[in-house]
Amino acid sequence: MAEPCLCGQATAEPTCTLVAGAGITIQGGDTIQAHSALPWVSFLPTTANFTLGNGLNDSRYLLVGKTVDVIIALRFGTTSTFSATQWRIGMPAGTVPFFGPGAIAVNHVAGAASMRDQSAGSPWFSGETILNNNATPIQVRYGDDAGGTNSLVMQGVPFTWTNLDELVIRFRTEVV
Question: Which end of the chain has fewer beta carbons closer than 10 Å to its terminal beta carbon, N or C?
């Protein structure tokens, strides 16, 4: 068995083993081996300006070190409510997005979003996931804000949200 390489250590041996992160080992010859499956954790995100009601939640996250991958998947139900104010969604419990000095990265695009309007024959809309530095930091933007148009998702943007409509958000960010 090869000895692990130390940071900055040069080796001519093709059998050098590098540990790339939790559960991943890279061996000479570009072989990647997974040691164990890291568990995705289900969670119910907090929300502001809309409620899921009896809708379905399939949200989950994977925390590896200081990096979190998040998938928020919501299908709204008959008792879901929607506000005409910009929707906000909370991070998984115990995670807070990292923002650089002076909050340089506030309102930065962290990932993608998909929105499905079931009542219009199942068309999908694409958007971006934006992170802010508040208690419910996740927002979704549809299109852009050119010309002063507010394009943050809310009731009526990008369509009239109702029963069976879906919102799926994916992003990766550094956490503190």
Answer: N
Full-model pTM: 0.75
DSSP symbols for 32-99: EEESSPPPPEE----EESEE-TT-EE--EEEEETTEEEEEEEEE--TT-EE-SS--EEPPPTT--B--
> Percent of the chain scored above 70 by pLDDT?
72
Q: Which residue is listed with tokens 């958000």?
A: 169
How far is Cα 45 from Cα 52, in angstroms, rounded to an integer? 10
How wide is the angle at C-alpha 18 spanned by C-alphas 10 and 7, nearest 5°? 45
Q: Nearest 5°: CA angle at 126, between 171 and 38?
A: 25
Give the residue carrying structure tokens 């692990």.
4
Q: Break the chain into its structural domains and give their ranges.
A: 1-37, 41-174
